[in-house]
């Protein structure tokens, strides 16, 4: 199976006062299409920075990232956004739902931005997959944290992305709700063949992934 994500010699430095601070150093790995990778490590080890680089949301100081054959950092910002739009879905710890839109409208949004005609129908199916068909017309403020994260998952998967990037997807949820969200992510990963790349402190979640990458002070261990 071909690697859908390839990172070669990734490094990230930022200026801290007058001196450079190394956040990531010489990180190289690849992920096969349809696999699941957990990025784990202590707080401040560089996990979220690495995820941002893999998604082309941030630019490295050194090294390269290739997503499905596209060399991200040979492209300008618009080019990277185009690759993300074509390939990627995102789930964040803070849900990132638009408060003025109901659950269904939040899930429809990425489809509408692409001008897809049957956006409502596809969004309804996606909400059904995460068990929230009955909550479709509720605003985020009327949903629990677990329900909001399930709406975020439905929105991420509705475009049928090849790669899903998730940053601490269970970080704001209690253990039982977090476990439900984990099951759902892994089920969607299997059903759609989506490659899953996630940052997590949750060792249970990490163990469920097909591969783990551990960072310590910016280096792979």
Summarize the helices and strands and which ones pair or pack:
Layout: E1 3-16, E2 19-32, E3 36-41, H1 47-54, E4 62-67, E5 70-71, H2 77-87, E6 88-92, H3 103-113, H4 119-129, H5 145-157, E7 163-167, H6 175-192, E8 195-199, H7 203-208, E9 211-216, E10 219-220
Parallel strand pairs: 3-8, 3-9, 6-7, 7-8
Antiparallel strand pairs: 1-2, 1-4, 4-5, 9-10
Summary, kept brief:
This protein is about 35% helix and about 30% strand.
Describe the structure.
The structure is a single chain. It contains 7 helices and 10 strands. Helix 3 (103-113) runs parallel beside helix 5, helix 4 packs across helix 5 (145-157) and helix 5 (145-157) runs parallel beside helix 6. The model has no long low-confidence stretch (mean pLDDT 91). The chain has a 6-stranded mixed β-sheet with strand order 6-7-8-3-9-10, with helices on both faces. Strands 2-1-4-5 form a 4-stranded antiparallel β-sheet, covered by helices on one side. With 221 residues, the chain is an alpha/beta fold. Helix content is 35%, strand content 29%. The chain is globular, with a radius of gyration of 17 Å.
């Amino acid at each position: 199976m071909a690697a859908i994500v390839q990172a070669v010699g990734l490094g990230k430095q930022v200026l801290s006062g007058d001196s450079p601070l190394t956040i990531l150093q010489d990180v190289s790995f690849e992920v096969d299409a349809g696999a699941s990778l957990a990025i784990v490590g202590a707080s401040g080890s560089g996990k979220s920075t690495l995820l941002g680089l893999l998604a082309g949301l941030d630019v490295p100081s050194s090294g390269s990232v290739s997503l499905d054959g596209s060399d991200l950092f040979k492209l300008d910002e618009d080019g990277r956004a185009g690759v993300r739009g074509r390939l990627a879905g995102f789930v964040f710890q803070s849900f990132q739902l638009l408060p003025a839109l109901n659950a269904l409208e939040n899930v429809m949004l990425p489809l509408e931005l692409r001008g897809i005609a049957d956006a409502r129908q596809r969004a309804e199916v996606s909400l059904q997959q995460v068990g929230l068909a009955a909550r479709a017309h509720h605003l985020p403020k009327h949903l629990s944290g677990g329900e909001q994260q399930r709406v975020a998952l439905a929105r991420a998967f509705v475009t049928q992305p090849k790669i899903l990037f998730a940053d601490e997807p269970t970080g704001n949820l209690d253990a039982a709700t977090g476990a439900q969200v984990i099951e759902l992510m892994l089920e969607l990963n299997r059903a759609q063949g989506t490659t899953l790349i996630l940052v997590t402190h949750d060792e249970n979640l990490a163990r469920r992934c097909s591969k783990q990458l551990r960072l310590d002070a910016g280096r792979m261990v």
